[in-house]
Amino acid sequence: MAELTYREAVAYGIAQEMRREPSLVMLGEDIGPAGGVFKTTVGLIDEFGPERIRDTPISEQAILGAAMGAAMTGVPVIAEIMFSDFFAVCWDILANQIAKSRYMTDGQVSFPIVIRTANGGGVRFGAQHSQSVENWAMMIPGLKVVAPSTPEDVVGLMAASIRDPDPVVFFEHKALMGAKAEIPDGEIVDRLGTAKVLREGADVTIAALAAMVPRALEAAERLAQDGISAEVIDVRSLVPLDTRTLLGSVAKTGRFFTVEENPRLCGWGAELVSIVSDEAFWDLDGPSIRITTPHIPLPAAASLEDLALPSVDRIYETVAKSVETRSGA
Amino acid sequence: MHTDPRYDYALREPRLPPPVDHTLNDAPIDLDVRVGMYRSLHLLRGFGKRAHDLFLQNLVKGTTHLSLGMEAVATGFGAALQPGDYTFATYRGHAHSLARGMDPGAALAELCGRSNGILGGKGGSMHLTDAAKGMMGSYAIIGAHLCIANGAAWSAQMRGTDQVAVAFFGDGTSNIGAFHEALNLAKVWNLPVVFVCENNLYMEYTPIDIVTAVSPPVAGRASAYGLEEIVIDGNDPDRVYLTAVQAVGKARSGGGPSLIEAVTYRSGGHSRADPGKYRPAEEVGAWAEHDPVPLYHARLLSAGVEEDRLEAIQEEVAEAIDSATSFAQMGAEPGEAALMSEVYADGGSAWRN
Asked: In what order do the strands lie in the sheet with B258-263?
């Protein structure tokens, strides 16, 4: 067992796969000697050299284009987009080219690419370096979308993403970089499309993602003190989506809540609520409720950002109030 | 009626073609290669005309971007490339696809939206791809594929093969960011890639020179990336071929990227919706006189090829186009199985369990 931070787990997971697959390469801005602006690639250039860990210019289209061209000609690639906000300048390559080319060519070409990016808020960077954009990626057919919340999941889902023959957008959360946990020895390989029940409960189901997961767990602890038993599910993989685990939980609890960092409109939770509504309507004992960031750009000031993102208090209060209302208390 | 060239581009000074370079009559090119290019020109021309006809018959739907008048670029490069090389084209990609050996029937069937199309009807006119033949795709958003061609070249470099990637694009691409990102990275990484601009003088409906800071629009950017300025007559197959051999050979031997501006002209409009009336009549007429098909016919006659041989090639190609048309029309319309397949590598489209 080794104790790793979330940020160390990124390099740990990449190194595990680079040792296994000699043709795997990575490219991105400042990922080499600098070790990445979030220090998520520290040490990789020392072990794997500058041919496999490639520093690039600030050219996000060139980065994703190179990843695509290499992948479709037989070289598996990890590409780093420093901040997920920067997807906006290379969205064509991701959404129009990488995502669609297998379908448009009727399967002539494959894209074994992992696109890693630092996502989310909580670090006071303001509206252009703090967005949660996993829902942007989720709505493009052809992409897979993963967002781990723990160091072990970073390693295991990184391995699963790298071994997957499809393009995977891998969201690393900025606010979780310092989170520490024990990692088991030996090779760690997880599976995409699997949610995890992190806390079992009988009264309500709370689905959360990335930095919202520890908040949901803390809220569940407080709800327990009030006698409300909350089941907390780490969704982990938006595409493929583990609806079986979600629907199974709702069948048990009869109440469904999502905790989303993305701004309200078209957040991933809306899709989950829609699925629950379609397929578990008769299991429900009350409305499904989404706890999200309001539909605003993220502000920079600490006090404002804290007000915007779903907090433990807000999760706790929303769930508690909803359950109380239902029970007529 | 506008009388001001700022509002009616057809009133501008015509941009005339260069004179035919007759010194190329004696160009050091194998006769077999030249005869092959002659056949290619006719195949590409015949295909383009047939695609146009089928469009008018409502058998080709949506839109088509033809290379009529511009076939010499695809022909010259097609002759210079090796089977393992990679071609990346734009939505105006029919000629480049055929020049890399795509079956004309499968290409025409794709334009007609049939299940026997090269993409099963799922890509259409703007996305012709035949990866097995090195035709790595036709890309319909300006600029992206220059970056993607870099990736294929990078892959060849990493795998230690001598493959070369070639990206064809229009003059309008010179003003989008991806073009500049691609050139810079290609030079910095010394990639085996050749960027080929088909400068047909109009970005779509607008003359390229009135929206571009430098002239010529592509070669004028070369020095910014440490590349040589190369402008050629893109309607002369021999000139294109010789330039291609040099640039591809340089890339193959580790000499890095090249940027080539091949000046050419569309005989028609940008797409099927465009009659091309923004062009001065004198200009259209002058370029029609500089059409690569008659130009090359005269070239080969002067090189000693017999008229009978050239006519036999024309007949053979005409039959090939007819048989491609029959093949396309024979195809069924694709159904639900095709609709939901190949979104992901497992062959399906499932996004949930």
From this structure: B135-139, B86-90, B165-170, B193-199, B258-263, B231-233
